Predict the 3D structure of the following.
Amino acid sequence: MDKTELIALVENNQAELIELCSSLLQIPSENPDGDTAAITTFISNYLSDNGIEPLHYEANPKLVNIVANIGEEEGPQLIYCGHSDTVPVGNREKWSFDPFLGASQGGFLLGRGASDMKTGLAGLLFTAVLLKRYQLPLKGGLTLAIVADEETGGEYGVPWLLARKLIAGDGCLIAEPSNALHPTIGQKGSCSFTLTVKGIPAHGSLAPLVGRSAIVDGMAAIEKIRQVTALKGVIPEELVGLLAQSNQYLHEENPQMAGIFEMVTCNIGTIKGGTGANVVADSCVIEIDCRVPFGIQRSEVMAFVASQLAQLGIDYTVTDLGFKSEANYTLPTDPVCRAVVDNIQVVSNQAAYGVLQWACSDARHFRQYGIPVLQYGPAELSTIHGFDERVKVENVVECAKVYLLAAMDFLNGDKEDCYD
């Protein structure tokens, strides 16, 4: 089959793809405080019913990962990765439809996970099934890594599998939501921490003459810490072109976010302190989330924070919070990036290119293990993690076409004769 015939193969089977999306959306898999057992069972049955053996790896009693392989053990190895968990639904009264409706209406698939990322996951599963069902020639192997834990930091998902050498490859595609023409090939680092400030309690009627308020000291600390946004780094030379292209994309899509790729961002997420209005607070706990650009290390951010706090003469401690990572990227010239971007252009007949991302995801784990990776998936970006989450059916089908073509190119060396 040539690429035109492969595209037709997806189109001729797209009813199966949409039905698969609907089924996944109808199965609750909220995380945290959820259980992904039902969706794991469904995915396993779908694969086994189509001749693909699913392997189960229980990272946690309620979180079971699926690994499945097709193709050859020799030759290039490609990983297609997706997560089956979603963020919680939240207040159902703010949804205009049942969050587990899973229906296709008005050209959209509706429900929690429609954009993040059950329809992208369905596209990966569907692609593997087409490769198996039609015995498409592969000079390498495709691994499906379906993880049950991503939305809460992913401890029991991708890093759990990688650490145990249960998955490996020469390239990886994660079906995380992205712009239809611009997969994400690099991400800023994460540097989150908890600042605990200690004060001296006293009767509130004596403040500020007696005692020392941890809350007041915490407020002073916040003002100092927020100056971290002025830190500047040196962009690696090999990233200059990608950064310029990413800024161009950002200017067109979100002009108010100009400069986000070059700056340290600082969000004061939570503040908890004191025991009552009539007591000078003896403790204030502040959670802070910084995202670190290319050219700056996490250690530099924390050194700056320490130097700023040292100026205040306050009693404090700093502890790590959440996951930590340095800024990371895959070069646009890498074969897995070329396979995806080239085929986005084939399917869409429009110019496509990879861009940087201001947040972070499971991609960082693959890069830590030396596996080039990018993210590309269907999405209505404005609805991710929000109420009335949805995605265009057309976008889901287009992504599935790219997944199939990219797998064929990457595993067969992009040789036309490998399609015959």
